[in-house]
Predict the 3D structure of the following.
Amino acid sequence: MKRVFSGIQPSGEIHIGNYLGAIKNWIALGERLGKDAIFAIVDYHAITQAYDPALLARRTFEAALANIAAGLDPERVILFVQSQVPEHTELAWVFTTQTPVGDLTRMTQYKDKAARQSFVGAGLLMYPVLQAADILLYKADTVPVGEDQLQHIELTREIARRFNARFGATFPEPQAQLNKDAPRVPGIDGKAKMSKSVGNTIGILEAPDAIWEKLRTAPTDPARVRRSDPGEPTRCLIWRYHTYFSPAPLVREVIEPECRRAGIGCVECKRMLFDSMMKELGPIQERAAELRARPERVSEALEAGREQAAAIAEPVMEEVREKIGLLRPGARPWKPAG
Ligand code: TRP
């Protein structure tokens, strides 16, 4: 693993699924790789579906702020906003010309999203091509993503392979990195995976009383109708969340046996979970409040990130322009005669 690239959409508040599934891993990768750990807030991806232009800039800023508050150190890694490095869309255009339409219409995520939309823009179809450009613009070899993105990374490999075959060795074929420790966090509805589009999230910056209200009303093991009914913790969403946030001995020695013998009630168990969660989220929320009071820290971090990203992206894009045969400014397409 030499260079890592990953992206997160600014399409809503950062939730504990993002935090446990992606951001914690990004932080660890940053500690190992420094400036070879590159993370983008992918705003051009966010506009491929219905969105509110009045909210996009704020959400982009908030996504950066939440990542920094969660512990991603912008001085250590490269953290930037995708649209501020215009080479992303430029390279994406080049890649669209080398990608069969049929490969794109086959993408599971495209089919799912298109089915839920009354207006399907061509950008939704091109979405994975832009993602390939994000990754290959930095010649990244490793892409930490969730399972739902594996198909897009495979397409990225095909795009790299096809480009290299036609224009000469240029891009590595990046590998997806599925983080085994990263849980697939279920939503607070206890049904679907936690996701902004389903609306079953707990935001990492959500007010503690709002978080408590969500926990209080969340489903538990259906066997526990009355306080005296014994439960099976592994069937329970709250137990699952305990395994993410509570110390392992507490889960093993208290939560599990006490649930099984009805020694504690679900509300008590939720209280304990809430305490564990706020132990982890509290300091993040404090840092977020500090950053809100000094937003220039976030904008300066993003400006530094933009410069660092551009310093890598610009020469790679120039290499592409030359390899695909564009007329460069001031250049002549033939050598002078004689
Ligand atoms: N499509 C990714 C997602 O929804 C976000 C993304 C955009 C991304 N560009 C990327 C992820 C490049 C990894 C690498 O999760």
Q: What stands out?
A: Residues 4-186+295-324 form a domain with the Rossmann fold fold (CATH 3.40.50.620). Residues 266-293 form the longest helix (28 residues). The mean pLDDT is 96. The pocket of tryptophan is lined by residues 5-7, 9, 42, 45, 131, 134-135, 143, 145, 149 (CB under 6 Å).
